[in-house]
């Protein structure tokens, strides 16, 4: 379909007196461009580095915080644009073939630089630190790993993390499917309203969500009126008020914390699954109806197989979120009453206990846990590219 | 069997209506409880459930003193400004860098292209916790000594958001017709010109999608802000977390503080929901 258009342009766009600016004609080395490019890049990087360091070292120069924020936007975005301008000029000055070979890396470099600095280098450095002592000044071999695996708190955190991983992604996906299917049967206006309200918690931070749910789990002494919704219902049914987040029986407190995350994430699952369900071709449903299938059979045997890809994507995304669950546990119980999880344990080792060695060893355990997910992501991407 | 029909001709489903109504109520009640409680006096909130205020609205001691108390008394005003100063640059700065990289991944061929892109996909899943101890070394007193100020947090969020931004933009750019870029090339445009004049403007929807997700992520972040900002520069989320930590006194301020922290992301969410959904459906996963 699109083959006809470029052909026309192709014929029109090649007059005999082609402009010297055409990329194929950039043959010779242009030392002036190379020089301006290099000087420009150095100047931009020097200026930006000093500007941003000045924000930190001499904030009083800039008057108000808002000024710093605005300058950061102008400096960051404008600086990036000017940097690319000089990078491009430098590359254009190079001899033709070299220029064509270098330009992709020039486009990639600044973005990859940030990824390398903030994620790749730290990954290796973290592995390195995990074999060192609490302030990373001397190697201690495997001692940190022995310490954390010998710590019952760590083992309990692993168990809790596994419990979170078994429960939350599955419930979120199941809930998302149910809401997506049911809302699809509502009127257009009703569907929009219902989905917006269920989606809304997506905007709420885990800390604020914890504040919201602590209100629901609140406890007053027996005899007083209960201000927490859960205890009000519980006492209304004849029970005595409970300090819910301290009940370790059957991991009830952990499950109540999971409810917070499910409440936050359900909308995300619903939105993705809903758009997948709307993409199921009507004629496949119609064919099944003509064959006499019940709505229930149609759902399980026609709809579900066609949205399987989205179900897996949502599951994996929620799974990754749950693996690193931190905020909710940190602000509600900080891991006491048997609710600790790995990321919270990591934070307390790093922040409260200043045990860098043990903290980084915990991260390495987390890293090992995500390796299968990295493999899955890459395979998923390759499949998608093959179907493109 | 006669079934009632909706305006668009589909059969009315009473079961769906009942179940969905219940679910929507269930999902909205927690936030409603917070909102109602934040306008009640300390004594009222401590002695009766927030729903009783809804049942007897005239017997309730409605007040906005919780908001003024938390805004000035607990200095949420500073936290609020800090959140804005942290979140907006951290949302915008990654975009320019990522857009160039996404352009290269979409429209150029070069050795190790697949390797670099698989690297981006892999680091999307890597937990950001890996960065903390090494970056505390680089930015902290052992290194540049800029830990505690905004710049460290901007840098970190730029780095953490970069893989996702490249991924979302690249997915979007690969849906653009290649004929546009081809013809620009034949017209003698360099890649730099093609990027600025064609591809960047056409990618605005994907840029908005990423920006919405990244803004919510940075605004709602606790970990990075708590570790890398000093108390003068800290965000409203960290302020709220600190208020949650002080049990007992100031409980009535907590609900108002929580609501203050929700207002901006809620607004962004309502206004830009469309873009956000698009960002999510383009396969957004973040480590």
From TrEMBL, chain A:
<feature type="transmembrane region" description="Helical">
    <location>
        <begin position="34"/>
        <end position="55"/>
    </location>
</feature>
<feature type="transmembrane region" description="Helical">
    <location>
        <begin position="359"/>
        <end position="378"/>
    </location>
</feature>
<keyword id="KW-1003">Cell membrane</keyword>
<feature type="domain" description="ABC transmembrane type-1">
    <location>
        <begin position="158"/>
        <end position="375"/>
    </location>
</feature>
<keyword id="KW-0813">Transport</keyword>
<keyword id="KW-0472">Membrane</keyword>
<feature type="transmembrane region" description="Helical">
    <location>
        <begin position="162"/>
        <end position="182"/>
    </location>
</feature>
<keyword id="KW-1133">Transmembrane helix</keyword>
<feature type="region of interest" description="Disordered">
    <location>
        <begin position="1"/>
        <end position="25"/>
    </location>
</feature>
<feature type="transmembrane region" description="Helical">
    <location>
        <begin position="67"/>
        <end position="90"/>
    </location>
</feature>
<feature type="transmembrane region" description="Helical">
    <location>
        <begin position="102"/>
        <end position="121"/>
    </location>
</feature>
<dbReference type="InterPro" id="IPR050809">
    <property type="entry name" value="UgpAE/MalFG_permease"/>
</dbReference>
<dbReference type="Pfam" id="PF00528">
    <property type="entry name" value="BPD_transp_1"/>
</dbReference>
<keyword id="KW-0812">Transmembrane</keyword>
<dbReference type="InterPro" id="IPR035906">
    <property type="entry name" value="MetI-like_sf"/>
</dbReference>
<feature type="transmembrane region" description="Helical">
    <location>
        <begin position="255"/>
        <end position="277"/>
    </location>
</feature>
<feature type="transmembrane region" description="Helical">
    <location>
        <begin position="194"/>
        <end position="219"/>
    </location>
</feature>
<dbReference type="InterPro" id="IPR000515">
    <property type="entry name" value="MetI-like"/>
</dbReference>
<protein>
    <submittedName>
        <fullName>Sugar ABC transporter permease</fullName>
    </submittedName>
</protein>
<feature type="transmembrane region" description="Helical">
    <location>
        <begin position="298"/>
        <end position="322"/>
    </location>
</feature>
<comment type="similarity">
    <text>Belongs to the binding-protein-dependent transport system permease family.</text>
</comment>
TrEMBL record, chain B:
<keyword id="KW-0812">Transmembrane</keyword>
<protein>
    <submittedName>
        <fullName>Carbohydrate ABC transporter permease</fullName>
    </submittedName>
</protein>
<comment type="similarity">
    <text>Belongs to the binding-protein-dependent transport system permease family.</text>
</comment>
<dbReference type="Pfam" id="PF00528">
    <property type="entry name" value="BPD_transp_1"/>
</dbReference>
<dbReference type="InterPro" id="IPR000515">
    <property type="entry name" value="MetI-like"/>
</dbReference>
<keyword id="KW-1133">Transmembrane helix</keyword>
<feature type="transmembrane region" description="Helical">
    <location>
        <begin position="253"/>
        <end position="272"/>
    </location>
</feature>
<feature type="domain" description="ABC transmembrane type-1">
    <location>
        <begin position="80"/>
        <end position="272"/>
    </location>
</feature>
<feature type="transmembrane region" description="Helical">
    <location>
        <begin position="12"/>
        <end position="36"/>
    </location>
</feature>
<keyword id="KW-1003">Cell membrane</keyword>
<dbReference type="InterPro" id="IPR035906">
    <property type="entry name" value="MetI-like_sf"/>
</dbReference>
<feature type="transmembrane region" description="Helical">
    <location>
        <begin position="115"/>
        <end position="136"/>
    </location>
</feature>
<feature type="transmembrane region" description="Helical">
    <location>
        <begin position="148"/>
        <end position="169"/>
    </location>
</feature>
<keyword id="KW-0472">Membrane</keyword>
<keyword id="KW-0813">Transport</keyword>
<feature type="transmembrane region" description="Helical">
    <location>
        <begin position="80"/>
        <end position="103"/>
    </location>
</feature>
<feature type="transmembrane region" description="Helical">
    <location>
        <begin position="198"/>
        <end position="219"/>
    </location>
</feature>
């Amino acid at each position: 379909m699109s083959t006809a258009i470029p052909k026309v342009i192709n014929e029109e766009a090649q007059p005999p007196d082609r402009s010297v600016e055409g990329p194929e004609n950039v043959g010779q080395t242009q030392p002036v461009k190379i020089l301006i490019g290099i000087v420009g890049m150095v100047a931009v990087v020097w200026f930006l580095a000093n500007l941003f360091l000045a924000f930190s070292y001499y904030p009083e120069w800039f008057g108000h915080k808002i000024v710093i924020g605005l300058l950061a936007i102008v400096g960051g975005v404008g600086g990036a644009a000017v940097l690319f301008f000089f990078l491009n000029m430098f590359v254009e000055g190079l001899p033709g073939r070299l220029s064509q070979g270098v330009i992709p890396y020039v486009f990639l470099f600044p973005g990859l630089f940030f990824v390398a600095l903030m994620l790749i280098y730290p990954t290796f450095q973290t592995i390195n630190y995990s074999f060192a002592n609490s302030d990373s000044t001397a190697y201690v071999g495997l001692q940190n790993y022995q310490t954390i695996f010998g710590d019952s708190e760590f083992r309990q955190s692993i168990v809790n993390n596994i419990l979170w991983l078994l429960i939350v992604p599955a419930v979120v996906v199941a809930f998302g499917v149910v809401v997506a299917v049911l809302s699809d049967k509502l009127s257009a206006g009703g569907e929009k309203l219902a989905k917006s309200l269920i989606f809304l918690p997506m905007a709420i931070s885990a800390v604020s969500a914890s504040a919201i749910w602590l209100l629901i789990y609140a406890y007053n002494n027996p005899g007083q009126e209960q201000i927490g919704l859960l205890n009000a219902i519980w006492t209304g049914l004849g029970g005595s008020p409970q300090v819910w987040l301290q009940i370790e029986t059957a991991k009830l407190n952990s499950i109540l914390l999971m409810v917070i995350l499910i409440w936050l994430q359900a909308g995300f699952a619903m939105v993705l699954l809903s758009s997948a369900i709307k993409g199921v071709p009507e004629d496949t449903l119609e064919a099944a109806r003509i064959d006499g299938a019940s709505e229930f059979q149609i759902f399980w045997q026609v709809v579900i197989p066609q949205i399987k890809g989205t179900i897996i994507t949502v599951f994996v995304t929620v799974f990754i979120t749950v693996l690193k669950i931190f905020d909710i546990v940190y602000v509600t119980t900080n891991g006491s009453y048997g609710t600790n999880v790995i990321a919270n344990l990591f934070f307390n080792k790093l922040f409260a206990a200043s045990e860098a060695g043990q903290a980084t060893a915990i991260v390495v355990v987390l890293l090992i846990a995500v390796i299968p997910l990295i493999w899955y992501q890459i395979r998923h991407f390759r499949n998608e590219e093959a179907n493109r | 069997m006669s079934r009632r029909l909706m305006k668009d001709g589909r059969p009315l489903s009473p079961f769906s209506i009942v179940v969905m109504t219940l679910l929507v109520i269930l999902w909205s009640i927690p936030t409603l409880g917070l909102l109602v409680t934040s306008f009640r006096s300390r004594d009222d909130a401590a002695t009766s459930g927030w729903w009783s205020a809804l049942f007897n609205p005239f017997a309730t001691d409605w007040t906005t003193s919780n908001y003024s108390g938390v805004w000035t008394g607990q200095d949420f005003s500073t936290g609020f400004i800090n959140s804005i100063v942290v979140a907006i640059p951290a949302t915008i700065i990654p975009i320019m860098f990522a857009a160039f990289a996404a352009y290269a991944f979409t429209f150029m061929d070069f050795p190790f292209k697949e390797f670099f892109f698989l690297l981006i996909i892999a680091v999307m899943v890597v937990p950001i916790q890996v960065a903390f101890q090494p970056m505390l070394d680089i930015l902290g007193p052992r290194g540049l000594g800029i830990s505690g100020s905004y710049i460290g947090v901007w840098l970190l969020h730029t780095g953490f958001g970069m893989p996702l931004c490249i991924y979302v933009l690249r997915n979007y750019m690969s849906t653009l017709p290649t004929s546009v870029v081809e013809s620009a090339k034949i017209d003698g445009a360099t890649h730099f010109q093609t990027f600025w004049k064609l591809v960047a403007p056409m990618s605005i929807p994907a840029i908005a999608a990423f920006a919405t997700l990244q803004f919510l992520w940075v605004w709602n972040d606790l970990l990075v802000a708590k570790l890398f900002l000093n108390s003068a520069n800290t965000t409203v989320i960290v302020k709220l977390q600190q208020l949650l930590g002080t049990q007992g006194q100031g409980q009535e301020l907590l609900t108002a503080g929580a609501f203050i922290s929700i207002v901006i992301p809620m607004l962004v969410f309502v206004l830009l929901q469309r873009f956000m959904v698009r960002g999510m459906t383009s396969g957004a996963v973040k480590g």
